[in-house]
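Anyone? Bumping this.
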Amino acid sequence: MNSKKKHAWLTSNQMILVYIIAVFSLIVGIRQPAFWDFATVLNTMRAAIFTMCFALCEMIVIISGGIDVSFPAIGCVAMYVPMYIINRVAPIDNAWFAFGLAILIGLAFGLLNGFLVAILNLPPLIATLATSSIASGGVVTILGTREFTVLPSSLQAIYNTNLITYTSPKTGFQYVLNILVLVPIIVCLLIAWMLKYTMLGRGLYVIGGNKTAARVAGFNVKKLQFAAYVWSGVFVGVAAMIYNILMHSATTSALMGDEMITIAACVIGGVRITGGHGGVGGVVLSVILITLVQNNLNMLGIPTSWQRFVVGIVLLLGTIITSWQTKRSMKMSQA
Amino acid sequence: MSLKPHTVQKPYGVSSVKKERPGQNMGNEENKVFLKLKGIKKSFGGVHALRGVDLEIREGEIHCLAGENGCGKSTLIKAISGVHEPDEGEIWINGEKVEHMKPIDAINRGIQVIYQDFAVFPNLTVAENIALNGEVKDRKKFVNWKEIHQIAERGMAQVGAELDPDMPLEQLPVAGKQMVAICRAIVNDAKLLILDEPTTALTEKEVGKLWEVLRGLKKKGIAIMIVNHKLDEIYQIADSLTILRNGKYISSGKISEYNDARFMKDMTGRDLVETKYDPELSDEEVFRVDHLTLKGRFEDVSFSMNKGDILGLTGLLGSGRGEIGEALFGITPPESGDIYMNGKKIEIHSVADAIKNKIGYVPEDRLTQGLFMERSIEDNTIASSIRDYFHGMSLNEKEMREASERWLKDLSIAAPSIDPPVRTLSGGNAQKVVIAKWLNTHPRLFILNGPTVGVDVGAKAEIHEILRGLAKQGIGIIIISDDLPELLQNCNKIVIMNKGKVRLVTDNKIDKLSL
Amino acid sequence: MKKKTASKKLNDHIKVLMLMMVFVLILMAVLKGPVYYSVNNFRSMIFQFPEYGVLSFGMMVCMIAGGIDLSLVGIMNLGGVVCALLIKSAGVPIPLACLASVAVGAGCGALNGLIIGSLDIPAMLVTLCGLEVYSGLALAITGGPAINGMSDSFKNIANGSFGSIPYVLFIFIGVLIVVAFIMKHTVFGHEVYFLGSNKQAARYSGINTLRTTILAHTMSGILGGISGIIITSHLNSAKSSNGSTYTLLSLLIVVLGGINPDGGGGTVAGVTFSIVLLQLIANAFTIMHAPDTLKTLVNGCLLVAALILDKVMQKREMQKNS
């Protein structure tokens, strides 16, 4: 029994991700010894911030049995509108205002998603697609497509606050890690706790597993669905503002298309697309893996123009392996 | 909310002495009546599902509710559990008359129903599945895993189930899921446990374990109602019996008051002998299998059928009865053995092979395997024979319509036309559509797995009549069923399977109904 | 003749679409009559819609089969890039290059279908990754910049016309007829519907589900390849990021056209009406000098409206039945 459990743990989805990360690092490290540097950790963390944030949104929705492809559009609106107001309407130089408005916008579209899915019972993919076009179409029509590249000083101050400053002894370059990296880290911990130790978290798994049974058991299915989409909207608002601060750029299309890689990251991290499965741990590992691959293909000598293809293949393989894993664990039990 | 499932509450002052004499009081009259139904009537849009049903279940008693498919058993359960409010009649629970009962009222009064799908969460662990419903009812905000484990352990100890509490439920076999559902009902203070056809998906060994568990619960004073129609199982477990037929209460009493003949008569309303299928015997062989084997499913199965024969294939779940059907139809092809159709050897490696050799198969699960619920009757009828209508360049719509209309008439499917989606049909008519689908392929061998599950009595008789007609035309008919009376009535040859092997091949003259 | 309920419901849907079309047409007659109702305007509309119209049929086939094809735009661009490259760098004759584009599309679609069918992975996931793979491959082939400046005769495919009727209209109608024929009058077409409405029952009815899945996605891929040719010719440029809004647009079209998102339902006629309706609306916006993005907003709202309308009609039908 115990050895069986140990075996199951060693071949679990998360451990497989750890192996792949290790092997990939080893390969890159052998080709480019410069990889073995603390700077790699900092670079990876910095690059992973956004994917991690988005994955935290998507993960909750998928666990609840839905899917959200509207978060890039919501994010774009959530960072564009505050920046538009600050730059063109009233120079409110206040980080609370910027984040607050971003969250409010996220909340509004999250509620719309929740309404479409939970109340009107529309298929989540289609419903969030609609929200996506309403969000991005609406904001661009009203506010136009500009790009704001100058941050107000309050946001600039956040940009200038670094958590870690590190000078590589090998290259002499300086690497910094912005304080905002704490946001996904803290939220990861909170979500992990929420999913495991609150009825809200268990409820999300429950409705993702069997909606009818959830209703019979007395769970408020609609409320839980709302919670998932609202969370996704709210947190993507925060994430988009972080993007704006770190990238010095707010446009109406900056995040568009990110839903693809985010969904793939969730699935590879063990969040089953059919709902009810997965957790923060796997998603973190999967985001690390994807970020490592994206960041270090250059080091492997793969030309830039081939990188999207390679990442695509990695995602495809990851998805196939995950599905195969799932099927295997189901089959093991039947035996 | 108290979590003290050890003490089964006896709020009406019944002395606990009686409870201390477990095992002695099977169906004892002294035991308090927990549930009493009087003249329950319920109809749906003019269809009388229940026409006056009386029922009495006592504490510490295992009561069996029996009847053919479509007799109103499920409607009755729904009335007891508050899902449907009866049109007429009285429900008394624990000596108190209950009116306008909602599902939550039934649960609060200790009525727990375990449906065939168990309503469990496959993605959660055993412990959570057992404990979570209670936690929700208590409006908990946070999850105390220690408590969850304690509740689960307690529930399992009471029931006598041994499961790994941290095992995800989807990794358990059906019997395990059922145990979890029982544990959950018990930790939620069940006083009456209703199990809807609990043995259909269990193997013989698992059935034994289930009986053991239920007997344990009985000793704890819990009332148990089992919906079942398998006589041998009823003999094994039940203290008393109520038989319904066509929505009507027929008879009720202690199990000792019944014998095979009375049981059959009450169930079907007919004496068995009169209606038995008795074809003219012929030596013209239609179908034969020799030493058919699929490892792990069935082994060395041989039988043969002559013209006019209807062959019944029965046995418990896991005995190989369904597996043979799926094998002959190529879903899970046999590994070895020979199959002869009209004396000619045929090979079956896939569904395509089976269809090419004119084998039709009505699967057990009509809704998920047999029908396209959203498509029209026409589409469903021609689904397996559509290739026959492709002439030259395109499909011949007219021929397809004509064929469907012919079957609609020939099988007297109650539908205004061939165009409504199958979703709108009743169980019996939907099953006739499945049959029409295969008849339209002009099969030489027609295998039906549970042909009358969820079919009302009238349609059931019609379906049997259709099958007899087909057999007379020389089409080989194999009925796979666990409904022994059905087989005895309609088959002139019965193959009884046990643990993957043929245990007995017999005619329909046997009078002992037990397997 | 007896009324068909299945087709009656569909007629209801098409009726709504036609009503919306009439509404747009009348509205535009009132607002911008002379400009809207000019030969030139209708010609410009016809030049626009075939590329995403053909794409939508691909999406339609996959959705009827119970799946979805999010990789269509990737296939389209890969096909376009291959076609352009063959013409420009290898000097392959245009028909052959077009055939290559279609073949590439078929290959990509078959791969999608193979993975979906044999490994039983949701189509959404597979095609999502497929989009990255095919777009990535297109990007890798071009190396980044677009491939421009193909011969005039290639440009003419999507920009030339026969009299005042653009060639692409013929292409579109040709595709429409073939797709409609396949879906309605062939065994495969019916099998796609069966597969989409109940995969297990399809298997138990003797339908080879793997084969049907692969063929459905192959068909979708072929249509992607064809629209790749059209868009490349139209823009006279091939790159990996053309038509990035078309995924959304084609989804919108098929759902608006009455295709059941869960599979198994809907007709080619509905999708065709939906394509035309959206083009009428898009053109109305152009004429009114409304920003392009307003279209996106309106499309989103239309999608929700169409779905809600379906729900309402479904409920009404249920009530009528019971």
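Late reply, but here is one note on the structure posted above: The two ends of chain C are 24 Å apart (CA to CA).
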